[in-house]
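Troubleshooting log. The previous structure file for this entry was overwritten by mistake, so regenerating from the original sequence record. Sequence copied from the archived sheet and checked twice against the printout by T.R.
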Amino acid sequence: MTLDLRINSEHDPRQLQRQYAAAGRLQVPDFLPADCAARLHRELLANQDWYLTYNEGSENFESEAARFQALPPAQQQRFMHNLYGRARNGFQYLFKQYYISGAIKRGEQPGHPLHPVQDFVNSEPFLGWMRELTDRPDIAFSDCYASRYEAGHFLTEHNDIHGDQQRIAAWVISMTPDWNPDWGGYLAFYDDAGNIEAGFKPSFNTLNIFSIPQKHAVQILAPYAGQPRTSLLGWLQH
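Regenerated output below.
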């Protein structure tokens, strides 16, 4: 059965617009109807097409997750040691992703169960809802990813400005049930002094949306985290 995604009709973006404008960020629980959320969650957990993504300075890399797991333990340890060292004083990230928009553009994995997400986030119901919420009628399209953070994964502070893209806002549909706050993985927002202004807990079927630019990070997942942190995300652009 093909994913049939739609926004919960109980949410009125015009009523939420004032809250979003006040803080430049918003959480919307129960964003999808329950049946949509359950099916999407199953597909995320069943997905085998995960790529380990990380950076070395300004260069971005992506490798099949299974290839990394097949490396000898000593080589994996060296990789992690070097990566954590770079994170100490600079921008760094490490997590698993499946870039849905990119795979479709390249003609890869046709018929993949997660590919309908691309159509959903570029449909008029979704884009129109987002235009109302953000009060940005110039939103023209969105890209989309699936992400999976496991123990030790993280994304350090950044502001989502991209030189080749005109990003208006970032959206994340958090699809992680029963999260223990002690496991980390919060979407944290910082003020100019480095204090955390807000922290969005990984949760199930919750839309997190925030304007760009805004300093934020995904805090590292503890080594004892009991499950992965899964979500769908992308950027609203013009």
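The mean pLDDT is 97. Archived copy saved in two places this time.
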